[in-house]
Design goal:
heteropentamer; A alpha/beta (664); B alpha/beta (315); C alpha/beta (144); D alpha+beta (342); E alpha/beta (275); A: 664 residues; alpha/beta; Rossmann fold; FAD/NAD(P)-binding domain; 5-stranded parallel sheet; 25% strand; globular; B: 315 residues; 5-stranded mixed sheet
């Protein structure tokens, strides 16, 4: 029989406002085994914890039930408090009276009744709790960063600076990501390449960093501290170790029809190419879709011109396996395909472009060498219209767009407008917006400069339609403030398209068993308190893969993420989750059902000797669970027909006791 | 058949291939054979019997017998070989200690069927030309063999031996047009109310004697959850309709994907509850949801509950 | 005359990583659902043994819902896939025994889907309430 | 003796059922008869015997003994016993009727089992003499006459109706209550029926089965006989034989937590079960051999030891028909009788 | 009508820790006093409803009119529960069950030797205290009691404080292995019994302890000239009903709960070897 203490938290008025906490404490005081029951303003506060500790001492408590907020919030807090008093942490159970009761129910009587029932269930469980001891597992002191954009680079650099090895896996031939494609950056207007490329070089040169560019994650096994990842190193058909990046091959390649991704397809590149001058690693890659040699075995020029002998048409994808202690997802984003918004003419009218395309059209290293020219006739545009929120902040009924705000568009549009007006003062610039959102250091000042200093026309309203009208574009829009319809003849229309997580994020999330939201952004362990961790231990989140953010935010999150990773790698051993499966050898018949459903391969079988009747010995095959490998999902417990396999902390009897208490 | 089996068993005993023989021994009546282990030629010659009433599936005895000293000879009918394979896949029997003779089978007789025809006081049963001559204290009568055939044999799924060391008689084929799911389909076609009434009628007869469980080759747990006082679900009696349901649902679930549909559960039920209809429902569903699977057919194939696909149907 | 609607007892097994968090999310967003729903936290939906479900019905539950991560999102990679198979078979068996199919359900609710949690629970509650008291899997001994 | 014409059987049932609950064998749809409560339209089954024995009426498979209310440190014991209502069982065969004597020896000796006694006092047994015994019958081995069963009232099926004889006060009261349906008769028709039955009984395959080699005082001789090993070899350890047996009376006492109290109930148990004698630190009957031996030693030796030679078997043959592996008391008796010094 | 299966509810008024795994529970009726009377050697069914029922020997003497006591070793579901109980809680008790030691006939006027090991002292303690309270009816008393260690000796305080000071009582304590702070005898009970060289004349032996101890003590006693008719023991088997009906505690034709638990060794010889 346990001696149970019950503590009902008011959580200010969060719980006490809807639940009669005194009545709950009183009702639960009559439950079998309860020797102490009380309520308190804030159980999680220092004095609340003190109250619990005193009660443990004074009443010799062997079990604790706290009626409070979600265990996902403060279970650890109360466990620590109990442990400080010498009570095993796993003798604490939480009845979730806030998220599951007071916050969702309005009627005091009903909420109180439900609170009492949840309290009873927790008491019933604690009766069957047993002290659990956490085991330990070693840590591989290397991190994997998936994605080589500014987020991945920053995280990798910070981890490496702390003295740990980091591997970056980047699916494209070079690291740099989206930032490498940008022209200037708000709100300081410094050039993206100038601030990014040194970091890329730092990463390339850092002795602790290994970059696997043109590589993709194939599979991940294991758990925090002990991941095993398979990385597919896609065939570049160029030996990375030999290529000097001289670029002769790219010049001599006769096949010049491949669209240049880096310039958003505005120009062409060769079948063998280096994405841009500052690419890291600066090695050529042969595009198998275009290479004549690879396609029909005729050409081979690049091989002939390469002084280093780096060209290797026979190169194959290679899969390497590496071990890691922690994994960072920095998979980044892409603009959505603006073609779905046919009314804006994208894809049909060549002079309707996206903001990222505009970045390239304005960049000195871009297809126009930095001169803003219309894609259609390479003329200077005199009237430019920006359309905001294309695919962002959509209502639920709009299946083409995203419900969220893409966050960066207001600022980069202000930047674009300002840059155009500065370079080409004869240009009229219109911005159609729903709201202008400029929270951030020096952001609003930046926007006001665009309006006040550069005379950009900001019009609150929606663009209804963009149609080709001769050489010009006819923009139909409404001015909400003036309450009138507008028709503007524009030379260039720029769409601020929403951004979405990279398409590969979903499959990577599945590999990492990291949960994702409906928009395919990785879910953080806690939206406020653990924003850079995935709920899956050992998986961390950096950059836009977690949610839209601009460069400064991305970089700070990347560093925060690195700090978390360093926190894991700095440890020699990790404490394991003690809530793991274990097999009762006396019941186990070694049928292997459990092994088949274990995702971690934590179950093995051995032949063991048992005492049989009349002093005989029986040899039986029985299962045993490696507690460092088991993550405690419990799949095996249901696969086991004899009930030999049970899960500590969530035993069959504990769960059934909760069921009984709830249904009573 | 009996002669051939006996002869071969005597040979294998004599040449030391096996030290024991698992077969059937004669009963008081023409139909009540008991599974038995014979250790000597004399015992075999005295007591070994094989006839149309030797329906018992001997494979489960091998859990115990294959762990004893020496090799044991076992006679397995086609359906028994599936159970044998399944036990092998679950590491419950030691293959090296077993010599399997597959015996051909065209269906076993069910004495209950004879009795249901009003044949009481049976003193002798003789088989000739597809007919049984049944002698009773009240006179004799002839019955067509198929009229006395056990239900499970009428819906035989396979006459093929999936494992054996040698065969006596012919090896058959998997019965592709077997109608074993007919009754399941009939039940499925009923309304829930009708189905509920049907199963209440059947399961309410349960006396929880555990014969179905103890005879089942898949129920080979060291201790059944229903016998384990620490499991929290231990039951000893069919106290009420809930416990009847609980026992039979959970038992069927525990053998789901492992049950070879050997039909022993229904054969032994003293209350004639068609327990195989529960197992067959699971088998039918698994086939329909996750592709054809026959437990015991291929020990290396993953059972439906031990694997999954991304596109499985929703529950 | 006002007919008082039957208030069913609902047990919701929620996996710790997605659906329990989803329930917390519903709480944080103050998205209400009937108080008849009581949540039991399990590490993964695959921890739910058919015995627990029958046990709940025995002890007086009128409906049992199992909520887990969306397929592909299981914290343990594959747990919910096994849940899906097990429950598909179990529910089909219950149906076969003539026990109302609508009393049991599996739903995939992510940590971000507080709204879905609340909506699902509200709907499920209404469905079960319409069925009324669980008679076919009841244990009279457990009735007061 | 009283006579009931064939046509009036249903009237008799109706008349009895008006006074008290009446149970009689009825076909249950699987080709087997089971005791069922009579109501208008119920058809009496003339099947030789019921699938389950008649012991259920006095010793049901499960019954509540008492309840406990638990609150905090307090326990209240609640006696839930209630006076049983009168009832009649019609159509009990000689074997089952004899089994009641055996159950009485256990449950009505000091200390009396009040649950059993209550039912026994309120139940009236109407037996039906056998007409078509089966090959599995061997009640004669234990001195039971299938043609002249015991019970409160004995009934014979004769050519043109039924002859009834009251054997006890309870029986007389029952017949008196339905006297309007009955006429007086002599025992000629009964004797003819009995002769016919006895002639068949003599021809049954087990007619010659004797109790030689088993019985009172033979513990030492039989306990260590090597044949137990082969006899018990195939036993599955299920409870079929025990549960269909009219004389098996072992029980278990269990508690069930209803959520609002503890119900203590008893239920049939089987000495064939591996956990029957299991204790926290071991089991005196380690293997199926010991458990199998216990069941038959109890019926054939221990029970006669403690009950003036009365055997704990009535030869109803249910276990012969029902055992999944066709091992049974007849095979045991014959094996034990064969050469005692093997 | 009285039904022996329906228990009494009693209050556990005192719990005394005897050894690391043995506790003694004092049980009184809610209105005070004993739940029922008993004879030395008889047992009672203790139960916590919902947990389990178990047959436990009554360790207090019938001469104690205020309460009953049970010494319980922690070894299963119910005993674990009892050990975690607190004073003031209720349990249920039914009984008394079984045949007592024949203190009114065969043992009367005899010299008595009690041989006990570990928790085996519990049933004998009832007799010992009965004999102390009826000192004139019995002759010389020897008590041989052994345990694994000093800490495992049950009722140590009572033995040293009271039994050792009872006239014509000789208490011989022994422990299995040398231990600091123990200057008494060291060795196993069977050997110690032989060393003590008891005389069989007009003497009865009451023995209770682990089977292995009984097995080895018996030949020693026979060697000393004792006849099996002079030696009594008490048995323990799985019991449920306590009244010889549920069918599980029989050894041959004898039911331990009804015909035992006290047996004379010559009676045990008549029974098959299945215990």
């Amino acid at each position: 029989m346990q001696r149970i203490g019950v503590f009902i938290c008011h959580c200010g008025t969060n719980i006490a406002g809807t639940v009669d906490v005194k009545a709950v404490a009183e009702a639960l005081s009559h439950e079998a085994g309860v020797v102490f029951s009380t309520d308190y303003q804030y159980m999680c506060s220092e004095s609340g914890q003190q109250l619990m500790r005193e009660a443990i001492r004074e009443h010799r408590l062997t079990g604790i039930v706290v009626g409070s907020c979600s265990p996902r919030m403060h279970e650890a807090t109360f466990r620590k408090a109990a442990a400080a008093e010498g009570l095993n942490s796993y003798m604490v159970e939480i009845a979730n009276l806030r998220e599951h009761v007071s916050w969702i129910h309005k009627d005091m009587k009903e909420a109180t009744e439900k609170a009492i029932i949840l309290g009873r269930a927790a008491i019933a469980k604690v009766h069957l709790n047993a002290p659990l001891q956490a085991g330990e597992s070693p840590v591989t002191k290397r991190a994997l960063v998936i994605g080589g954009g500014i987020a991945g680079i920053q995280t990798a650099l910070d981890i490496a600076e702390a003295g740990f090895e980091v591997d970056i896996v980047e699916k494209s031939p070079t690291i740099g990501g989206k930032m490498a494609q940008l022209d200037k950056t708000f709100p300081t207007l410094d050039c993206a390449a100038c601030i990014l490329t040194p970091k890329m070089v730092d990463a390339a040169q850092h002795e602790k960093i290994t970059i696997y560019a043109y590589s993709e994650l194939e599979a991940v096994k294991g758990y925090i501290g002990n991941f095993k990842a398979q990385i597919r190193r896609k065939a570049r058909f160029v030996d990375e170790t030999k290529c000097t990046g001289c670029g002769i091959c790219t010049e001599k390649c006769p096949m010049k029809k491949a669209p240049n991704e880096f310039n958003m397809g505005f120009d062409k590149r060769g079948a063998v190419y280096i994405p841009f001058a500052q690419a890291v690693p600066k090695v050529a890659t042969i595009d198998a879709d275009y290479c004549l040699m690879l396609k029909n075995g005729k050409c081979g020029i690049c091989s002939k011109v390469c002084g280093a002998g780096a060209i290797d048409y026979k190169q194959q994808d290679e899969i390497i396996e590496r071990e890691y202690g922690a994994i960072v997802a920095a998979t980044g984003f892409n603009p959505i395909d603006a073609k779905v918004y046919g009314e804006y003419g994208y894809g049909t009218c060549p002079d309707v472009v996206t903001s990222l395309e505009l970045e390239r059209l304005m960049n000195a290293a871009g297809p126009t060498n930095g001169t803003l020219l219309r894609p259609s006739d390479k003329e200077h545009p005199h009237t430019v219209v920006f359309v905001q929120c294309v695919g962002s902040r959509c209502t639920e009924t709009d299946e083409r767009g995203k419900p969220y705000c893409s966050k960066i568009c207001c600022m980069y549009t202000a930047k674009h407008a300002m840059l155009i007006r500065e370079k080409y003062p004869d240009t009229d610039v219109y911005v159609f917006y729903i709201d202008v959102r400029t929270p951030g250091k020096n952001f609003d000042e930046f926007y006001r400069r665009a309006v006040e200093q550069y005379g950009v026309h900001y019009i609150k309203g929606m663009v209804g339609k963009v149609t080709q009208n001769g050489k010009q574009l006819r923009v139909q829009a409404s001015d909400l403030l003036a309450g009138e319809q507008l028709h503007i003849n524009a030379d260039l229309v720029v769409l601020a398209t929403a951004i979405e997580p990279d398409k590969t994020a979903r499959s990577i999330g599945t590999m990492l068993t990291a949960s994702m939201d409906t928009n395919d952004f990785f879910t953080e362990a806690h939206p406020k308190l653990r924003p850079v961790e995935s709920p899956t231990a050992g998986i961390f989140l950096s950059g836009v893969c977690q949610g839209p953010k601009d460069i400064p935010e991305t970089v700070s999150q990347a560093s925060a993420c690195a700090a978390k990773v360093i926190g894991v790698l700095a440890k020699d051993k990790l404490t394991c989750n003690p809530c793991v499966a274990s097999s009762d050898e006396l019941l186990c018949n070694g049928c292997s059902s459990c092994e088949k459903v274990c995702p971690y391969g934590a179950i093995t079988y051995t032949d063991k000797e048992f005492r049989g009747p009349n002093r005989t010995t029986l040899i039986r095959r029985v299962a045993s669970v490696n507690p460092a490998v088991c993550q405690g999902c419990g799949a095996c417990t249901v696969a086991c027909p004899s009930g030999a396999m049970d899960l500590k902390g969530f035993t069959n009897k504990q769960i059934m006791a909760e069921v009984d208490a709830i249904c009573k | 058949m009996q002669k051939m089996m006996e002869k071969r068993a005597l040979e294998l005993l004599a040449d030391g291939t096996v030290s024991r023989v698992l077969g059937w021994s004669a009963g008081e009546f023409p139909y009540d054979m008991t599974p038995a282990v014979f250790e000597t030629a004399e015992e075999l010659q005295d007591g070994f019997v094989y006839n149309d009433f030797c329906g018992a599936n001997l494979s489960k005895y091998l859990i115990k017998e294959s762990r004893k000293e020496g090799k044991i000879l076992v006679f397995l009918k086609p359906c028994d070989t599936y159970s044998f394979n399944q036990l092998l896949a679950e590491h419950r029997i030691i293959r090296d200690n077993i010599y399997v003779i597959g015996i051909e089978c065209y269906g076993k007789a069910d004495v209950e069927k004879l009795k249901a025809m009003g044949l009481e006081g049976i003193t002798g049963i003789y088989m000739k030309d597809g007919e049984y001559t049944v002698e009773t204290v009240y006179g004799s009568q002839t019955v067509k063999a198929y009229e006395a055939m056990a239900e499970r044999c009428l819906a035989c799924k396979s006459k093929k031996h999936v494992v054996y060391d040698e065969l006596i008689g012919e090896d058959g084929e998997v019965v592709t047009d077997c109608n074993r799911f007919d009754m399941v389909e009939q039940l499925e076609a009923m309304t829930p109310e009708q189905r509920f009434a049907f199963w209440r009628g059947e399961l309410s007869r349960c006396i929880r004697c555990n014969a179905c469980r103890n005879v089942c080759p898949a129920c080979s747990c060291e201790q059944c959850v229903f016998d384990n006082p620490n499991s929290g679900v231990a039951q000893k009696a069919a106290v009420n309709s809930f416990e009847e349901n609980m026992f039979h649902i959970i038992r069927a679930f525990h053998v789901a994907g492992r049950c070879t549909d050997c039909g022993e559960c229904s054969r032994v039920c003293p209350q004639n509850i068609p327990l195989h209809l529960l197992n067959r429902k699971f088998i039918k569903d698994m086939n329909a949801f996750y592709g054809e699977y026959q437990a015991g057919e291929d020990p290396d194939k993953k059972p439906p509950l031990g694997t999954y696909t991304l596109g499985d149907r929703e529950a | 005359m006002q007919v008082t609607e039957y208030k069913p007892k609902i047990v919701a097994f929620c996996c710790n990583w997605c659906s329990y968090a989803g329930a917390d999310g519903a709480g944080s967003a103050r998205l209400s659902y009937p108080e008849e729903v009581k949540i039991i936290r399990v590490p993964c939906s695959c921890r739910v043994n058919p015995m627990f479900i029958l046990r709940a019905f025995q002890r007086g539950a009128d409906g049992v819902i199992i909520a887990g991560c969306h397929p592909g999102d299981c914290h343990y990679t594959s747990g919910n896939y096994f849940t899906r198979r097990r429950m598909a078979l179990l529910f089909s068996m219950l149906d076969y025994l003539g026990i109302e199919r609508e009393r049991t359900r599996v739903e995939w609710i992510s940590a971000a889907e507080g709204a879905k949690f609340s909506k699902t629970m509200t709907e499920f509650c209404a469905t079960v309430a319409a069925l009324g008291e669980n008679k076919r899997l009841e244990d009279l001994r457990c009735k007061k | 003796m009283k006579k009931l014409s064939l046509a009036k059987l249903n009237d008799l049932f109706a008349a009895i059922a008006q006074r008290e609950a009446l149970y009689l064998p009825v076909d249950n749809g699987t080709g087997k008869a089971e005791y069922t409560k009579w109501q208008e339209g119920t058809v009496y089954s003339t099947a030789l015997n019921t699938g389950r024995s008649a012991k259920d009426f006095f010793f049901p498979q499960t019954e509540n003994l008492m309840e406990f209310k638990m609150e905090g440190k307090r326990i209240d014991v609640i006696d839930t016993r209630e006076e049983c209502e009168d009832f009649v069982i019609f159509g009990v065969r000689a074997c089952d009727a004899a089994s009641f004597d055996i159950l009485d020896r256990v449950y009505l000796t000091d200390p009396v089992d009040t649950y059993y006694k209550n039912r026994r006092q309120h139940g009236t047994v109407v037996t039906m003499a056998c007409g078509r015994p089966a090959e599995t019958c061997f009640c004669g081995t234990f001195g039971i006459d299938a043609a002249d069963p015991k019970g409160d009232v004995t009934c014979w099926t004769v050519e043109d109706g039924y002859v009834l004889r009251a054997n006890t006060e309870k029986g007389e009261a029952l017949l008196a209550a339905v006297d309007g349906l009955l006429t007086d008769t002599d025992d000629k028709a009964v004797q003819a029926a009995q002769e016919k039955t006895r002639a068949i009984l003599a021809k049954l395959p087990l007619a010659a089965l004797s109790t030689e080699g088993v019985g009172q005082g033979l513990t030492k001789e039989l306990f260590d006989r090597p044949e137990w090993a082969s006899l018990s070899e195939a036993c599955l350890g299920c409870g079929t034989c025990t549960f269909v047996c009219p004389t098996c009376q072992c029980y278990d006492i269990r508690d069930f937590d209803t959520g609002h109290g503890i119900q203590r109930f008893r239920c049939w148990d089987s000495c064939m079960y591996s956990d029957f004698t299991k204790m926290a630190h071991g089991n005196p009957r380690v293997s199926q051999l010991e458990r199998f031996r216990q069941r038959f030693m109890h019926k054939l030796v221990y029970f006669p030891d403690n009950n003036d030679g009365l055997f704990g078997c009535v030869g109803c043959g249910r276990c012969l028909a029902r055992c999944p592996i066709s091992m049974n008391i007849v095979k045991v008796m014959k094996t034990l009788a064969k050469g005692g010094n093997k | 009508m009285e039904e022996t299966l329906i228990p009494y509810a009693g209050i556990v008024t005192k719990i005394t820790g005897q050894t690391p795994d043995v506790k003694t529970f004092r049980v009184e009726a809610p209105e005070g006093g004993k739940l029922f009377e008993h004879e030395p050697g008889q047992c009672a069914m203790l139960s916590v409803p919902g947990i389990s029922e178990a047959m436990i020997s009554i360790t207090s003497s019938p001469t104690n009119k205020a309460f009953m006591e049970f010494s319980v070793k922690k070894c299963g579901c119910l005993t674990d529960w009892l050990h975690s109980m607190e004073e003031g809680q209720m349990i249920t008790v039914r009984g008394p069950y079984g045949r007592p030691f024949p203190v009114h006939d065969e043992l009367k006027g005899k010299n008595l030797i009690f041989v006990a090991g570990g928790i085996g002292l519990a049933p004998l303690r009832s007799v010992i205290n009965f004999v102390r309270d009826n000192r004139a009816d019995y002759g010389h008393v020897d008590i041989v009691y052994g345990s694994r260690s000093k800490d495992d000796l049950v009722n140590y305080d009572e033995i040293v404080g009271e039994w050792m000071h009872t006239p014509d009582f000789n208490v011989h304590l022994t422990i299995d292995r040398e231990q600091e702070g123990w200057d008494g005898h060291v060795g196993f009970v069977p050997n110690y019994v032989k060393e003590l060289d008891f005389k069989p004349e007009n003497t009865c032996v009451l023995i209770c302890g682990p089977p292995i101890m009984i097995k080895f003590t018996l030949p020693g006693l026979i060697e000393l000239g004792f006849d099996k008719t002079q030696i009594f023991t008490t048995m323990e088997l799985r019991m449920k009903c306590g009244i010889g009906k549920c069918g599980r505690c029989n050894i041959g034709n004898k039911y331990v709960c009804k015909d035992g638990p006290v047996f004379r060794f010559d009676q045990l010889d008549e029974l098959p070897d299945e215990y």
